[in-house]
Structures
1.
Amino acid sequence: MTAYLIRNVSVVGGAPTDLLIRDGVVAETGAGLTAPDATVLDATGLVALPGLVDLHTHLREPGREDAETVESGSRAAALGGYTAVCAMANTSPVADTAGVVEQVWRLGREAGLVDVQPIGAVTVGLAGERLAELGAMADSAARVRIFSDDGHCVADPKLMRRALEYVKAFDGVVAQHAEEPRLTEGAQMHEGEVSTRLGLTGWPAVAEEAIIARDVLLAEHVGSRLHICHVSTAGSVEVLRHAKARGVKVTAEVTPHHLLLTDEKATTYDPVYKVNPPLRTAADVAALRAALAEGVIDIVATDHAPHAVEDKECEWAYARPGMLGLETALSIALDVLGPQWDLIAERMSRAPARIAGLDSHGLDPAPGVPANLTLVDPAARRVIEPAELASRSRNTPYARMTLPGRIVATFLRGEPTVLDGKAVK
């Protein structure tokens, strides 16, 4: 294993120092380090962050390898500064058994670019009718701890309660896609002024807020851990604030696109802006940004959702919802939060690692800590060119936008997965 001496790097925004990486860990830190056997990297002007952790990634394998594979998604993640991603269960077949989650986990290990932690389905086939093999997935080699029917809401309150009770036995967490389906039937975008103007069926904010309110009450009653996926409304923020003040064990995520884009994008009828939950209003975006800074929303999660060309380049009504996110998430966070490095590290690495139970991730570079880290050039600006993305898909809403920040290097257990902004393998 090659040793690396990273010189003059700012660790989470601190004063420049040196980092010596050896045998998979940060062996030493301090000014003026020497290591004759180490490969030296000049990191002057760069910031070292704990490797980013994504709690919400769609890797599509097995079943839709035309849109993404575990390997291509892992490469995109590494280029985005990630060292661990949690892969959602809506594959084909669905990741609702120990066999499927172990398959995804092993594919991640074979790719060797990031740690791929599978998320198991809550219900069989995501059908919302009976619980999947939660215990078997938890006991499998993949050690699943997060369960979600993302893309579908666990709408039955009795079933949701049972899931929360079940995962409590092994300190698991249920991640809910909060959407009351009876309020969103046929919905094409956010319900509001723009949807009225365009004549498109609206997805009302209350469809999200009602499920979150119900589920925080269930989590409080059971005493179990609940995580809310892709929060998108100001009303949801208030429900979460109230729940946290009551001591409910609830965490929440917001996506980069919900922090930056609004429902006005739908006026273009470009299906790249179709997503679930939909882009909301400027007031919602402002509330989400404030909640993220405050900590009412715990983390940024990408909801990286690659789609094949035929599923996106079609009429708005027939397009699949979802956007790419892994390779641009840190840039969006920088654009929204500014260079608040400790806050970015907390929201994009430490907190998601804690929620997922990934003990070797989310740790600031320090002696003895696993060398899972990323080096960022905060002064760089880059134009997003879809053809240059590592994902197999091209459905990025940031095409040809100029965004701040550039990932220069990513290390997974001391081995570089990205150097000089390029994937090592």
2.
Amino acid sequence: MTDDFRLLMLGAMYENGGNTTHRFLDGHPELFVYPFESQIGTRFVSDALTSLFPVKYRWPVFPLDASPMDDYRLIIDEECKVRARTPHVSKFRDMAFDFNDDARSDRYIECVKASGRSAANNVAAFFRSTFDSWKDYNRSGREKVYVGYSPIITVDSEAILAAMPTAHMMHVVRNPFSAYADTKKRPVPMRLSDYMRAWCLNQYHALLARHRHPDRVHIVRLEDTLSDPRKALAPVLSALGIEDHVALSVPSWNGLALREVYPWGTIRRATPEANRATAAELSVQEHAAVAQAAWQYLDVFDYGDFAGMRAV
């Protein structure tokens, strides 16, 4: 195990603001923030949750008889590999990104040969090799914690914390009304019942993990980040020994401020007003169904004001 590798892993249910929160952290000079979703899962993930969530978003599983090169190829990392290898079809094609995936692969193998193969060491090598190979990365020289984000990986909190004793988890939760309204904008949206089952399951795992590991698991409401990102995120960073910084005030890409968060997720305007307006897009029937499905979590996360809304 690489003892000096420090990771803050973000998780969130789809359209809950994980990408948005990730972008707010991007410009902090003490953080190596992964450029896209860090989809570290492999096709060997197989458990009771496999039917609910794509394996690319899960904590990876590697076969015992594989080589470091085999491991690297198994890590799905779809968004980064598509941007690096076929940029013309990437939704991030307009973002400057001087990065070669083969160079990262070579560096990854070097890291694993030094540390040995394991899920934790492979993940550490994945993050380290990314930033070692990213030529136009806006480096401060003060970075000491790596930050990744993968939707729904909160369900694997126990595995991550056990494998990486220095890792922390940050779970992002958004009121389910705005979240489901944004999910409906996808080309093939999830059914309301399926979405709410997955939303509730993510909150269950987040709360359970925080109960078991209160010093290493942090839950942040997107609503608080939108209102005051520095106030919302500073306590999490403080737990990691990272100072507050003005860069937390705006979402950014490689340190450059973004006018809108899209195409990192469906959220375009990261404001409280836009968040409430999104919740109001639901019909009365949809609002009632969401409130019924999420009933036990609305009080836990103080979403009573959203529960009281009604579509116009």
3.
Amino acid sequence: MSAKGPGLRLAFEKNCVDVDLSLLIAAVALPAGAKASVKYRQIVKSIETIGIVEPIIVTLDRDQPGRFLVLDGHMRLEALRDLGVTKALCLISTDDEGYTYNKRVNSLSVIQAHKMILKAAEGGVSVAQLAEALDLSVNTIRAKFRLLDGICPEAIVLLAEKPATSGMFNVLKQMKPMRQIDAAQTMVNLNTYSTRLAVALLRNSSPDQLVPEAAQRKTDATPSEALKRLEQELAALQADTETLQEGFGPASLQLEIIKTHVGSALLNNPAVVRWLAKRRPDHLQQLQKLSEIKQLPG
């Protein structure tokens, strides 16, 4: 960000461009009372403390050359204006007739958030300030500092932009580097990053694949203890499966019908997409997410 308000700093860099706020057109106004909300105050406080975390998503305005329609980030834009910032980091969608931009923008992964927090701390932001800005406890912030301690670089690269959880990384720390890489690759292949899967991979590891403490626990576990844990996991898995089976069939059919209509009748119609981008960008974003669903979560 080349023009910053007092105390502002870039917290997490992405492949974006600086755009003058005067060139950004908010397609929709903020809801009445939005600026009085807790969420808006948190956004303002976060920007003041650690800077912009996620870019504003824009597309070229065909009706006004040189200007941009805001597709996502209306509250961030308004907060920047209130703080007196003149430019903002933006990710520009070059295709407003589709929804490719939505595939490139996601919520921060835990690794990205970890790097953002470290960079803010290196810039002089205290743990207390971070906790207040991010609405997290001081202990949680400190835990985020240690998120990747004991994780090998190759596993970090594999999971950098994935929706992994902090708990999953705590499980991986019990494995040696080569097993961490195998586990991370398995998660990527399955497109599943749950702590439960990480625990299953841990228990399927031989003692020589684990760090000494975890290997000792595995060696010390009696057959009856291991069997008891397995029975508990199977019972939990069976309960989850039965719950899914009850509604899976009807829900899958409804999902397929809705996706077909959204994908073919709406998002493949350039005129509809342009209208939504200008007048209902929030609706457009939700429709895009719906069209990208491959299957119901299991």
